[in-house]
Amino acid sequence: FEIHNSPLSEYACMGFEYGYSTEMPNALVLWEAQYGDFFNGAQVFVDQFISAGQAKWGQVSRLTLLLPHGYEGGGPEHSSARLERFLQLAAENNLRVAYPTTTDNYYHLLRAQAADPAPVPFVLMTPKSLLRHEASYGTIGEFARPSFRPVLDDPSVKQKAKIERLVLCTGKIYYDLVASELRAKARKTAIVRIEMLAPLPHEEIRAVIDSYPNVKSIVWVQEEPKNMGARAYVRRRLLERLDKSLEIGYVGRPYRASPSEGYAGQHAVEQERIIAEALRE
Asked: Fewest CB within 10 A of the end CB: N or C in the chain?
């Protein structure tokens, strides 16, 4: 029996993969963390090379980071891939960030990333709870679509004129919302998913909002604390283009230093509160 101390780390792995992606620009290189939080150990590579390598040195990479992200009761070290950090770094088409909720959208994102003639690093939030979540499964017809869908309208809404409240969200929390028994009672509420975050699909989002003629309020719902997640990034950009009479409300965790609660029981209580508030008309 022998014990060896390995120098292997997230920092070393991400550095190797980034270097490989620059040397092999036509290869689709995927770096997947066991938990999204673990990329913290490689934050230097994200800041120094992945987000700004092309702007600083003309270094091209299509490196794709697969980061498990989603509040599932795992505590502050196993919940957040720090979505807000990547969105803060996104500018000048230097970085793509997405939080898909369906398998067909996930497939189309990877396919486009592999085939894009203008490579850009890509960050994909990939909740572990969706790996076997049947509601996220796609059909053959959806996989056969020609491209990715950046915004998903509410498939349960039959009469859009009756909708007065829009819930905007991204990622896993959508399934928590639609699985709640309160969803059936929220008859004047539609839930819209934003699958692509950077670059934000302004036109597609505006088209969906405009398709609801009697909307009186819009609210952004997320699992992350108010100072984290996609809230600030999305809200600021949408307000620049929306009707000035509409504000974007917020439902989620309050401002916090830690990404999530430390105990599964506390997590469940807070998650239930967020869902109830999001669906309250």
From this structure: N
- How buried is 180 (Cβ within 10 angstroms: 0-12 exposed, 13-18 middle, 19+ buried)? middle
Please classify residue 92 by burial: count the beta carbons closer than 10 Å to its beta carbon, then call 0-12 exposed, 13-18 middle and 19+ buried. exposed
Amino acid residing at 25: P
Would you say residue 221 has pLDDT above 70? yes
The helix or strand, by DSSP H or E, that contains position 65, with its residue range, turns out to be strand 64-67
Pinpoint the alpha helices (H) of the chain. 10-23, 43-45, 53-57, 83-89, 103-115, 140-143, 173-179, 202-210, 231-239, 264-278
Give the count of beta carbons closer than 10 Å to the beta carbon of residue 217: 15
Euclidean distance between CA atoms 170 and 275, whole angstroms: 14
pLDDT digits (tens, 9 = 90+) for 240-276: 887 767 789 999 999 999 999 999 999 999 999 999 9
What is the distance of C-alpha 257 from the center of its chain?
Answer: 20
Do residues 124 and 98 touch, judged by C-beta distance below 8 A?
yes
Contacts of 199 (CB under 8 A, 6+ apart): 90, 93, 96
Write the DSSP symbol of residue 10.
H
Amino acid at 38: F
Cα–Cα dist 265/73, whole Å: 8
Q: What angle do CA 80, 239, 165 make, to 5 degrees?
A: 80
Give the integer Cα–Cα distance in Å for 35 and 81. Answer: 7
